[in-house]
Design goal:
Number of domains of chain A: 2
Number of strands of chain B: 0
Oligomer: heterodimer
Largest interface: A-B, 108 and 99 residues
Strand order of the largest sheet of chain A: 4-3-12-7-8
Shape of chain A: elongated
Order of helices and strands of chain A: HHHHHHHEEHEEHEEHEEHEEEE
Number of helices of chain B: 8
Radius of gyration of chain A: 27 Å
Shape of chain B: flat
Structural class of chain B: mainly alpha
Helix content of chain A: 25-40%
Structural class of chain A: alpha+beta
Number of helices of chain A: 11
Strand content of chain A: 5-15%
Order of helices and strands of chain B: HHHHHHHH
Strand content of chain B: under 5%
């Protein structure tokens, strides 16, 4: 970038360099915040892409919230079932880290605010392109944080009819395009700025000895700084403290157990009361009421499980191909209880970041039901719920997920029959599947050849 | 090469990176727009930038400067230690928590309990207020301790913010005087930062030394 003279331009107010007075604003401070984001944001992006892969969107149209993704699904792979804590860790990291980065993003934006009012606004074609990319970076990061933060609070006031998945996924790619460009351009300047003053010296410099950085070509350092009211180490502690506070008040909802109570400001930071008001129950994110399932629908005397086999004809998966389904048998809850029962210990982990510690699930192996249907090695398995409509009333599991010995059609949780909110009469529980794919109130299973 | 730089404003690599990144972002933006609500998304994207840079920030800056001005006009009441951060920190911490959790705090997601979690939203306002109260209390306690312990002793090197405004650096010319290049030896940095023993009293108009590295 062409160095420009550091003098006041013709415009008043924030367009004037001397309008900006912070004595600690400068390349070094900006670079420290930038470095934190340079580490944090790729982790956010990677965990986000993993979470997207965990839905196995290429397996079936019902799994795919973004059917138009095109090349952006290039990296998709069959989501594994082990280690069983993988999705829990991935999503806890994604959501907690996103929240913890909110203060860092705010401090970083504060540190570069004079650049918004840079005058003249453009001095070359390269500079114009950089400023356009900044809209993707700044608009993009706020857009991603805002959609994520509103979604975990079930406050679906998004544009586009509230389709969170499409907004957050495509928005992430728009942002990352701008982010990569920003990093490519600014990385050398960041390294130079970080090397210009040692962190150790800054940490040993109190307020009285805090001085502005030397005037920089980029226009961050104030021409006429006010006397400092906070040291640089104070500013770092300020930003880090805000981050730590947000994190401490939220991480308990992902750790579970005794830590849940510490998540004072988190959607799943309260203990859930069981049916009898007794011991704490584990968390849910879709109640029977929300799913439109009544106790009458899910009554053991009338409920049956239908086992189907399916053949996909035509090209590829639906919607390209057509699912031809033939019914094999129906089973009552009593029939299921007569089959060989297995007990597994698995967590529930939600895309929204909260999770439970391992719960003890008892029921019939999905693999046994596949054998009963005559398809011991299904290419995939479609689950339908009694749930009325909604995006996740159906889900498709891969072969690896369907025949994993830990994958159950669970009838009991923690030694008692499932409660209605936990999916009575029967629910799917598959290791490492996102919570919404562990379909509750199951009405049929279709094993595809 | 030189003609390119003059025309474009940077090197060819810059242009290649730019095109590659714009291609990725543009491809995804096209998918985003395919959802149909282009206006809604643009309002969000631009609204995010405007909301932060042109509304939130000026409000914050105005509040910060106002409070400094108000307190400066009452010099006898000013403590001898830097006090402003004892106000800034709890205010900003509390505001960030509100910014993140306002839907739950104001009980906006109406189906949160019935359709989703079975958990009430009524607790969040109380929790946020309690955390805010605790932050202010801790901050006040910390200030009280600083006043009791260090108030008198620190009077010598107290914050320049408490110096009368007339003494503050006003001249850009003067401010630039600290810009001269230094050799970058550690001793130089340490002495300028006042880290060496017997360092002279710091001049508030001085700048950090420039440390030059080979490019």
């Amino acid at each position: 970038m062409r160095p420009k003279p550091r003098t006041d331009g013709p415009l008043p107010g924030p367009f004037r360099e001397s309008f900006w007075r912070s004595p600690i604003r400068g390349p070094w401070l900006t670079s420290v915040f930038g470095l934190v984001l340079l580490i944090g944001i790729p982790v956010m992006f990677a965990t986000g892409l993993f979470s997207y892969a965990a839905y196995n969107p290429n397996l079936a149209s019902v799994n795919d919230e973004t059917p138009g993704k095109g090349l952006l699904g290039f990296y998709l792979f069959s989501w594994p079932t082990h280690p069983i804590w993988l999705y829990r860790l991935n999503q806890g990291t994604h959501v907690t880290l996103g929240l913890v980065l909110v203060p860092i993003v705010a401090f970083k934006l504060w540190s570069v605010l004079p650049k918004l009012f840079e005058w003249p606004p453009l001095h070359s074609l390269a500079h114009l392109l950089e400023r356009i990319s900044l809209l993707a970076v700044v608009g993009g990061i706020i857009f991603e944080l805002a959609t994520g933060i509103l979604n975990i609070q079930t406050y679906y006031k998004f544009p586009q009819g509230g389709n969170f998945y499409a907004l957050h996924f495509y928005g992430a790619w728009v942002f990352i395009g701008g982010f990569v460009m920003h990093v490519a351009i600014k990385f050398p300047a960041m390294v130079r700025a970080l090397r210009s003053h040692s962190m150790w010296d800054v940490l040993r410099t109190n307020l009285a000895r805090t001085r502005p950085e030397p005037l920089d070509a980029g226009g961050l350092v104030a021409l006429r700084p006010d006397p400092p009211t906070i040291s640089r180490r104070g500013m770092l502690a300020f930003a880090g403290g805000a981050s730590a506070l947000v994190g401490l008040l939220v991480v308990g909802q992902s750790l579970g157990g005794p830590f849940r109570k510490t998540a004072l400001l988190a959607p799943h930071g309260q203990e859930m009361t069981g049916v009898n008001g007794a011991s704490p129950d584990f968390q849910v994110n879709m109640t029977a009421e929300g799913a439109g399932v009544t106790a009458a629908d899910a009554h053991a005397s009338t409920w049956t499980l239908t086992l189907n086999t399916g053949v996909i004809t035509g090209t590829g998966m639906p919607p390209g191909g057509t699912d031809t389904v033939s019914k094999v048998t129906t089973l009552t809850r009593a029939d299921l209880l007569k089959m060989e029962q297995h007990t597994v210990s698995l967590p529930i982990a939600c895309v929204e970041g909260w999770s439970t510690e391992n719960q003890t699930w008892t029921g019939v192996r999905l693999a046994d039901l596949a054998k009963m249907a005559g398809v011991p090695e299904p290419s995939s398995m479609l689950t339908r719920s009694l749930q009325k409509g909604g995006a996740f009333s159906r889900a498709v599991m891969s072969q690896a997920q369907a025949i994993d010995p830990d994958s159950l059609l669970a009838l009991q949780a923690n030694g008692a029959d499932l409660t209605l909110d936990h999916g009575y009469p029967a629910r799917v529980i598959v290791p490492d599947a996102p919570g919404v794919h562990n379909t509750k109130w199951v009405s049929s299973l279709t094993f595809r050849r | 090469m030189r003609w390119f730089s003059r025309l474009y404003g940077s090197n060819p690599l810059h242009l290649l990176v730019t095109i590659a990144c714009f291609a990725i972002a543009g491809y995804a933006a096209n998918k985003l727009a395919a959802g149909g609500d282009v206006k809604g998304i643009l309002i969000w994207l631009v609204g995010a930038v405007v909301g932060h840079d042109l509304i939130l920030f000026p409000l914050y800056a105005l509040a910060d400067r106002s409070i400094m001005t108000v307190f400066r006009r009452r010099p006898p009441a000013l403590p001898a230690v830097p006090w402003i951060n004892h106000l800034r920190v709890p205010v900003v911490f509390s505001a960030i928590l509100l910014l993140i959790w306002f839907p739950l705090i104001f009980r906006l997601p109406t189906q949160f309990q019935a359709d989703h979690t079975t958990l009430p939203t009524s607790v969040y306002m109380g929790r946020w207020l309690a955390v805010t109260g605790a932050l202010f209390l801790l901050s006040a306690l910390a200030l009280a301790v600083r006043l009791a312990v260090g108030g008198g002793r620190r009077r010598q090197d107290r914050a320049p913010s408490l110096v009368r405004s007339g003494q503050r650096a006003r001249s850009g010319q003067h401010a630039r005087s600290g810009q001269h290049a230094r050799s970058g030896q550690y001793e130089d940095v340490a002495s300028a930062l006042g880290l060496t023993s017997g360092a002279p009293a710091a001049d508030p108009h001085e700048r950090l030394p420039r440390v030059d590295h080979p490019r």
